[in-house]
Design goal:
The chain contains twelve helices and nine strands. By secondary structure, the chain is α/β, with parallel strands linked by helices. The protein has one domain: Rossmann fold, CATH 3.40.50. The chain is globular, with a radius of gyration of 18 Å.
């Protein structure tokens, strides 16, 4: 692979995260679409890092991705405290919007998978207005059974999409992409969670100042207190505890001369 990008990974709570900027990521996406090479993206925040440690299937699915990126300010902060700073936060929804801009500029074919039927239809309508040169290769809501996975994967394959956005909750989106990526033959796949709901106007995203302060979880908690309070209480507390342990572990390793950074290229490629 010749993209002009130097890659390195940083280990955070047992997971290797790729140290990319948005500019580097978009350049790599263009390269993979043009060359029809695989690029499966996964983004992790504090909650997903915690949940992956106790869910082997989720951990395995995340590790099947070609790039694992930091979606969440606390993850970036922890990398800095560990002395191996990630260059920036790459939120899944921000990546999606930048990819849509790129797709409109370069006439890429995009498939939208996930959310409720009326939501994904709304997203497609908004896309047609805001990104007029993008080609909608197809769309499907996320309310299908495991037994329908093969049929949905076949539809995506036949769409000849360049980009696939999967707006389903974890670990379902990770598991779906890990299982069907090779079959569908879409160069770039990105799991975007609840981003379709935000784009369709069903939910609001936190203001920029809350995003920068790592308080998006609190903003979501205010919107859905009954559903989210327990999840955030458990995962945030666990993340803080794990972070303290990780800082102690890495500090001791540093004293022994063991690095927390892998500077080798970790992006999977089919180039010979």
């Amino acid at each position: 692979m010749k993209t002009g990008i130097e890659q390195k990974t940083v280990n955070i709570l047992g997971m290797d995260l790729n140290a990319f900027t948005m500019k580097e990521l978009l350049e790599l996406i263009d390269h993979r679409i043009v060359s029809r090479q695989r690029l499966l993206l996964s983004v992790v925040n504090a909650a997903k890092l915690v949940n992956a440690r106790k869910d082997p299937d989720l951990m395995h699915s995340i590790k099947q991705a070609d790039l694992v990126l930091a979606d969440g300010a606390p993850v970036v902060w922890l990398s800095r405290l560990l002395g191996t700073p990630l260059p920036q936060r790459l939120a899944g929804i921000d990546i999606m919007y930048r990819m849509l801009e790129r797709a409109s500029q370069r006439h890429y074919r995009v498939y939208f998978l996930g959310a409720k039927a009326d939501v994904v239809q709304r997203v497609v309508a908004i896309t047609a207005t805001q990104y007029p040169n993008l080609i909608v290769a197809g769309y499907k809501d996320g309310y299908f059974s495991d037994g329908e996975d093969a049929a949905v994967a076949q539809q995506i394959k036949e769409s000849r999409a360049d980009i696939l956005f999967v707006a389903m909750p974890s670990p379902r989106k990770e598991n779906f992409l890990a299982k069907w990526y090779d079959f569908i033959q879409v160069p770039v796949c990105h799991g975007v969670g609840g981003s379709f709901d935000v784009m369709a106007g069903l939910t609001r995203r936190a203001p920029n100042w809350m995003q920068n302060c790592g308080l998006e979880w609190f903003y979501r908690l205010i919107q859905e207190p009954r559903r989210m309070w327990k999840r955030y209480l458990v995962t945030n507390t666990a993340f803080i505890g794990l972070s303290i342990s990780e800082i102690v572990r890495v500090t001791l390793n540093r004293l022994r001369g063991i690095s927390n950074v892998d500077t080798s290229c970790s992006v999977k490629t089919d180039d010979k």
